[in-house]
Design goal:
145 residues; 82% helix
């Protein structure tokens, strides 16, 4: 009996640590995508829309990582489900910024179209997958208790 309870506690801890690390890494990926990995235009004379998208994506990536860090220290499954739901909204924002809100350069051959946008789409997809998996896992574990 004590062994089963101990195993459940370890499983909960593993989920919390793994899901938190995943969200922290995905937040870092969103921050690094337009700044380091797949840089957008960096013109000092004229700021294009991709510059503002980069700035906004840094903020959204920081929020994603911060929620991942908060999740690491939160034991309540319902609160962690709420964090995962907010990660879904953040993923939508990651997509909305370059596609609708701030936009990217008009020229289709620019790096922001060819590299940055696809990387952000992939990053947002991974955030959605991680959030949905975490919500399902936490919901099922909550019903078992």
């Amino acid at each position: 009996m004590i062994k089963k309870e101990n195993e459940k506690g370890k499983l909960k801890m593993k989920n919390r640590v793994i899901s938190s690390i995943v969200f922290i890494l995905l937040g870092a990926f969103i921050i690094l995508t337009p700044t380091v990995l797949f840089r957008v235009c960096d013109s000092a004379e004229m700021r294009m829309s991709c510059y503002y998208t980069k700035q906004a994506e840094i903020g959204v990536g920081a929020v994603i990582a911060a929620l991942g860090l908060l999740s690491l220290f939160t034991k309540d499954a319902k609160i962690r489900i709420g964090y995962s739901v907010s990660q879904l909204l953040n993923a939508a924002l990651v997509l909305a910024l370059p596609l609708k809100l701030t936009g990217i350069c008009k020229m289709k051959s620019m790096d922001c179209h060819v590299r940055t946008l696809p990387a952000l789409i992939v990053g947002a997809a991974f955030i959605v997958i991680a959030a949905v998996v975490n919500i399902i896992y936490l919901s099922r574990k909550g019903k078992e208790q």
